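Archive entry: two folds, one per protein. Generate the first.
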Amino acid sequence: MTETITLDGPADWTDIAAAANGARLTLSDAARERIVKARAVVEALVDRGIRGYGINTGVGALCDVIIDRENQQALSRNIVLSHACGVGEPLGRAEARAVMAAQIANFAHGYSGVRVETVEALLALLNAGLIPNIPSRGSVGYLTHAASIGLVLIGRGTVNDGREIVPGAEALRRLGLQPLALQAKEGLSLVNGTPCATGLAALALSRTQSLFAWADAAAALTYENLGSQANTFAAGPLALRHSPGLQAVGKTLRDFLADSPMLKASAGTRTQDPLSLRAVPHVHGAARDAFEHVAEVVNRELASVTDNPAVSGTPEAPEVHSQAHAVGAALGLAMDSLAVAVAEVAAISERRIDRLVNPLVSGLPAFLAGDGGVSSGYMIAQYTAAALSAENRRLAAPASLDGGITSALQEDILTHATPAAFKALAIVDNLERILAIELLAAAQAYDLQPRSTAKAKRTETLYRRIRTAVPHYADDRPMNEDFEHMRHVIQEGTP
């Protein structure tokens, strides 16, 4: 049964991630009432002729151009049409759903002033799986992505229904809706704020959380194959380093490796293990600590109003506030931080893969090939991991410092939160692929161990799960097919 999330108070990043992955959204009565009240404030502003950015003025560098009442609907429509100038391949369905969910959550605060009918149309599209096609490139912040959603509401643009591309007007017809005639301020609200970056950030957090668990599992398998010190992850010594993430990773490793006959057999053969094995709690743990900070920032963003202008007061005393709440500086910095943390976890995974395949340090057949020379085994798989890790280093350069000037000096500092979130997702994808390679290499290493010593209980269980999906490799098939099978195992659940 599909999960339903009711938006009442501020959403949590896990709510947005759940909606991205197929959960339904609905508004509470209180949220709906907040939206209705905010709309009444906008109508009062229009009736009284009180100047409000994007309500009865132009936008950007045209903010001092007064728009008379009969042209305010045209302004809203024109904003959506002119801002829909993104290019490139569309966002994936999950990414687009995340953006829509964050947009709806922002409107539910009741400070944007859109009509409740507009929010309900967005909900209807999301819950029916009629997801707007959103070009992925061409935004320094949020405008072009969000405009592609607004297009569908006015009967333009296209949606993906999960099978085919459908015109926006047809998508509305399927829902029994007519294209919306946008009212004052609605055009600006539909393209404004940080929902694009926030939605993508929530999805990045969800994928990262799962992959960090798999990274710990992969490290445990590799350590059992290569390690020698059975007490490297003992609770007492690890407690000397203050880090919640480190302690959590240490506990996971102890659980995976508990009573390992393999580690007992190799104990004492080295004074200490190499850092890519010994420092797993420290590197993975630091990344987890960074994750928690980023999650806090994203939740603060979801609790915030990010529309500009925001409206407040009552119809009798309407207020409009031109602030910079649509600027996503906090999100840009947070997503840059997450990108670096995920890249670090990927980098240490690639180093562990190298140790598994390198006969100079592994004690295993060269490149995990059963017939070295005739077979290359995992030699080039490590190349692939190294290439992805190098790509991560390039992608991890901060987007939040890119800067730029737009709109004739009116918008003369840019924080690039959406590009920061987008490239964080790219690094997350690379981590998933690198971990798939490490998990397969570790399974292959078990197959080639010179002694038939038993594994720990949890590593044995995970080994069998891997082998159920992907058999032993003998240079008998394209290796990238195995990587994809392993990625599907990762995506199906926790280790």
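Generate the second and append.
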Amino acid sequence: MASKANRIDLFTIRTPQMRAFHLTWMAFFTCFFAWFACAPLMPVIKGEFGLTIGQIANINIAAVAITILVRLVVGPMCDRFGPRKTYTWLLALGAIPVLGVAASQSYESFLFFRLLIGAVGASFVITQYHTSVMFGPNVVGTANAAAAGWGNAGGGAAQALMPLLLGALVMLGVSEGMGWRAALVVPGVLMLVMAVLYWRYTQDCPEGNYDDMRAAGMSAAGAPVEAGKKGGWASFRAAASNYRVWLLFVTYGACFGIEIFIHNIAAVYYVDHFDLTIGQAGMAAGSFGLLALFARALGGWISDKMALRGTLNSRVTLLFILMIGEGLGLLWFARADTIVFAVIAMLVFGLFTHMACGATYALVPFIDRKALGGVAGIIGAGGNVGAVMAGFLMKGTGDIRHTLAILSGLVIFSALCAIAVRFTAGADEPSLASGAVAS
């Protein structure tokens, strides 16, 4: 019988574990590209619709608000239906509002489709779920962080590439108003292509697909197959009763929530405060997202290494340190007065932010493996709660720079939740050795 992989053979797709690894980060990349494709075009959209700072804040809030609900739902759905079905449907259905936003003719219609596009942000939970059931405890932190990091880079790629795509269309004679709409069709089509590939070439876990395994009375190395017989909400209830889940809910809001917020406001911030062109602002903002290509994986890899040399609490300590670094770096970014120092500060705090995200999900598989979908969903939703709260804060202050300064203090304070996740001494070693759950 197949089992979880204990190594990452990066340059092969012969095993179901590595096919899932590569296709899940590619699907995640596509979803994040689509999710943030509007953000670098906002200076153009702002001018066309005559948007105020309050309306831009509403759009940013809408972009992440619905993701909270969908992330809570897709976690248990993975336990019940399997990640293969769940991801395929999310990609296929999520393409509809991505294509719809291109047809927007007013602030209200743009806001509506931007709200619906937020659902594709739940792709993160499925990505983390799928790699968690495919890889063993000695490499699961690295696998989770690498898949999520490379997928997250889709946000950075959108920041850099969408303005270039718009510029190319304008050079071909397409008007700017039609050009941004045509550019937004591209990620929608890519999502439909990815849905077909995911359905055809992945399976739910090393042993096969959940439906087939349940029909044959089979079990798997992880418990989600059995948990699914009781319904996905059993997984959600079990996860919701674990206090560590809610502590990580807060910490993830303070790292991934900040990441989403920066993706949404960076281009506008650089244009308004440093008088950059839309192309220059897109490249500067894109560098933040592209850090995910290695930084998130680095956070997971260091977490795995520290745990092997120490205990499960070594993962907790790393997360605490990274969040302190994130908060201090964000404060520097908020106070930077020149474009050079602003970009340097953004890259520094971005490095800590992405690594903290990776370190958070390096802990997730050890919280409660019988409720993995619920755990991943609730903690993932925390990231979007953080982004929504940051959006409301910006709407209240009316100033991006002031908002960033306040957020830096909140990030440092939330690091206390990270250190409070600590496990009892007797529970550490079994968790690291076999993937058993610390209580």
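Annotation attached to the second fold: Residues 19 and 201 are 7 Å apart (CA to CA). The domain at 16-434 is CATH 1.20.1250.20 (Growth Hormone; Chain: A;).
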